[in-house]
Amino acid sequence: GYVAPALVRDWKIPSASLGPVFSAALVGVLPGSLLFSMLADKIGRRPVLIAVSLYFSALTFFTARTNSVDELMAVRFLAGIGLGGIMPNAMALVGEYSPARLRVTVMMVVSNGFTAGAAIGGFVAAALIPAYGWRSVFYFGAAVPLAIAALMFFALPESLQFMALRGSSPRKIALVLRN
């Protein structure tokens, strides 16, 4: 939504033609959350979170390369699928590692973090578009989850519940709990 005015000017299209584009990512969130939540139950939250963050990063990069409303809508839908995989798995992992007395508060902070990130996008877009054009917003938007995926690769623990259900050694679980 933040890039719409610049996109309308650049592509010389009516602003109403972007209506379906705005909902495409949100439509993708539902199947993504269902698909990747089930997958995380089978292979673990850590690999799913890293993979969908990389996937979302790639699709956000491809968003900057689109040249038509139809391409933009398709890529945003596919990106929404990745976003749908991030939110519920991140919440589940945060809930699992939060102390019981702070669990609800921590989960609220994390869920509000998604909203805050979207709001911050407006400030980023306002700075980037005049200097570098609308595509720069998506390049920046692709770099952030890429960096987060790299951090997760090195620092994100696996779900304790998943480890326990899959028969990980008590020693390995204890090591994760200590860190």
Characterise the protein shown here.
This protein is mainly alpha-helical. Helices cover 83% and strands 0% of the residues. The protein has eight helices and no strands. It has helices at residues 4-11, 19-43, 45-64, 69-97, 103-132, 135-155, 160-165, 170-178. Helix 2 (19-43) runs antiparallel to helix 3 and helix 3 (45-64) runs antiparallel to helix 6 (135-155). The protein is elongated. The protein starts with a helix and ends with a helix. The relative contact order is 0.15.
Characteristic terms for this protein:
179 residues; elongated; 8 helices; mainly alpha
Amount of beta strand: under 5%
Rounded to an integer in angstroms, the radius of gyration calculated over CA atoms is 18 Å
Tell me, rounded to a whole number, the average pLDDT. Answer: 91
Overall body shape: elongated
> What's the tally of helices?
8
The secondary structure category is mainly alpha
**What is the number of beta strands?**
0
Largest sheet: none
**Oligomeric state as shown:** single chain
As a percent range, the share of helical residues equals: over 70%
Question: How far is the first residue's CA from the last residue's CA?
Answer: 40 Å
